[in-house]
Amino acid sequence: MIIRILTNLLRFVATFIAATVMVFLLLRAVPGDPAKIALGEHSTPELLAQMQKEFGTDRPLIVQYFDWVSGLPFGDFGTSYVTRSDLSPLIMDRVQVSLILVVLAMLLALVIAIPFGTFAAVRHRKASGAVISAVSQLGIAIPGFLAGILLVVAFAVGLGWFPANGWTPPGQDPADFLRRVTLPVVALASVQAAVLTRYVRSAVLEVMSEDYLRTARAKGLSPMKALVKHGLRNAAIPVITVTSVQLAALIIGAVVIEKVFVIPGLGSLLLDSVGNRDMIAVQSIVMVLVGLTLIINLLVDVLYTIVDPRIRKTA
Amino acid sequence: MPLRIPARKTLTLTAVALSAALALTGCNAGGGSGDTTGAAPKDSLVVALTGEPVNLDFTTTAGAAIPQALMSNVYEGLVQVDQTGAITPLLAKSWELSKDRKNYTFTLVEGAKFSNGEAFDADDVKFSIERVKSDKWLSGMKSKMDIVDKVTVKSPTEVTVALKQPSNAWLFNMTTLVGAMFDPSGVDDLANKAIGTGPYALTEWKRGESINFDARADYWGTAPKTKKATLKYFSDAVATTNALKSGDVDVVFNMQAPELVDSFKADTKFQVLDGTSNGEIMLSMNNKAKPFDDVRVRQAVMYAIDRKAVVDSAWNGYGTLVGGPVPPTDPYYEDLNGVYPFDPAKAKALLKDAGVENLDITFTVPTRPYAAAISEIVVSQLKDVGINAKIETAEFPAVWLDKVFTKHDYQMSIVLAVEARDVLTMFNNPDYYIGFDNSKIAPIAAAADKADEAGFVSGMKKVVREIVDQAGSDTLFIFPNIVVANADVTGIPANSVTEALNLSVMGWK
Known about the structure:
Chain A has helices at 2-29, 34-39, 45-55, 61-69, 87-122, 127-141, 144-158, 174-208, 211-218, 223-260, 266-275, 279-307, 309-314. Chain A is mainly α. Chain A: Pfam families: BPD_transp_1, BPD_transp_1_N.
């Protein structure tokens, strides 16, 4: 168990370091100079040189890399070319917003997917099960941003129940937070719910054909009771795997949803930073995303061992 | 979507929980800050814009968004431009020009204060002008102050600026961001803190969202019409109009999607204003690269393009046709639409004359809504006269600035030139990306700048006519300033003739 966690941690660090090198080099290959953008349509060679010196982009790449990477373990992301201020508080602010969105969306998706998926599996030979399957197929086909736009048209512009866009932190005004967070979370969750419903359905279907479930039913339990008592725990393993993969996808999906709903999250900061070639910001945001994904993987691994004792023993 | 499924027994709990959450949040929807139908007189205003400032320091960062938010509202100059384009007093209540037209003596208003409590006086004028010339200013705009020789403080309310030579352009430039007045103790962190003499103090900047202003109780001039004003930033035009419809914003300024305007015109809850701007939509041809190094080819393009059709199809007819690189609000404007009427036959003849029939060119189009809309129709019109333009998109600003603007690696491009009175910036510099040969206009422009008002206007008209004769670029149209707003908002400055968006003049019926 401990060796397993240590191996995972080592892998975590190695992946992270490799990612910093790749992200740094890839961004240097992108055309566009932050100093040129800051000077715009009035740049002269002299001003450009002065600006590059100011930004530190005139230094050798290796110096720039170590300058940036040495701060990362301490949560110091450096100074933005564009905002001319510390990136760390800005990025941490945005991470909070994005995590709230992603976690709420995933919870909502699971709350929908687990009962619906189980229901669809139990009723897989009946019309109601087929309807759920068809609807979830439709949900997968509709991209999150389209769902977002449709929700805005219907519930914000049409009915006026919710604001069309904007953000209020939950601590500042909980009621307004709920109003503003509902549509984006529903938009994000709709696709996830559809995807997860299908996975829950197939996982439960698989479990239902297992011998131990047949035994349980032979002992007189109803199909639903047998499933809840003996089957769901086993069906949870593939669902946890998919949920973790989808969680990473959700963080990316949030980038687009944040744009649609004008939410100041990590995604919109990333897009703006790319546009301005604020390399330090882009690098740091990407590494935060990489870090989050790696942490999710770590946690899932731990979760496996809790849910399924067999995994603990094989390690 | 799964939400629409009728709940069965096993699902009842989920459904109840969800609908409860929806109902709870729905109940709150009416009472929010976005409600515009309240009975009490409103003392706040929310204006939607697309394109947020990246920081607050226009002395080291280019882009129209920073001066749009801060000039007039936080920073003020000695002089300003009114809605018709005329120069009027601001922090200077009057000024005198010496006989040799080289010395401007400004008499300052009394009682003006910066938002940090410091008094504004002649020393601040000297500090601000000299700072533009120092290496603290990292902006190409600083060259507008090169002509200043010396600033002399005569008394706390009187200051003389001596120019190296007479210049009509300089006083106008003082209405722009280079003329902003700073307090020496308020320039430590310009990127994040803005301290000026204007009617508002910047209270909060939620990056990625909005900038909030509070009206200053100690403002020296006419108090703003509302106590609070907010600039709210959106990534696209549809999001701004959605926010207007749902009551989250009161005004959408400089709307970027003219096709959405009609739905607001039909609704009495809203007003639509069709103002003008300083921005020229320039179809630029690289005067130094083949095939546009030949004036006949450039002229052929001028005849080949039906500018009326361009503005009608690409921008719903909003925009002003002018025929030259000068907006109607500039003093030396004249209607030059007749110089190159739409005449495909003449275009073909010119191309034949130049020996370049069946021409293949690359058209580098920046990733902006206006550019995408216009480029398609331009390509089809060029095709009719035998010019095959292949569209190549360039990410704006990063790639466009690098490739087109800096490296001059392009044949034809399109861009919105927003800066005020920028005709000489664009054409009186052969190293500028357009590459216009300025040998003929440079002496006329220099003489016009030194001349008196009448000589300035007539000289600049000559300059512009020469540029148009040489087909330096095709000015497709002057970009409109479309404003869509709640019908009860008053005082909206519809003409965007300065870089600033003055919030203090807007109020409620």
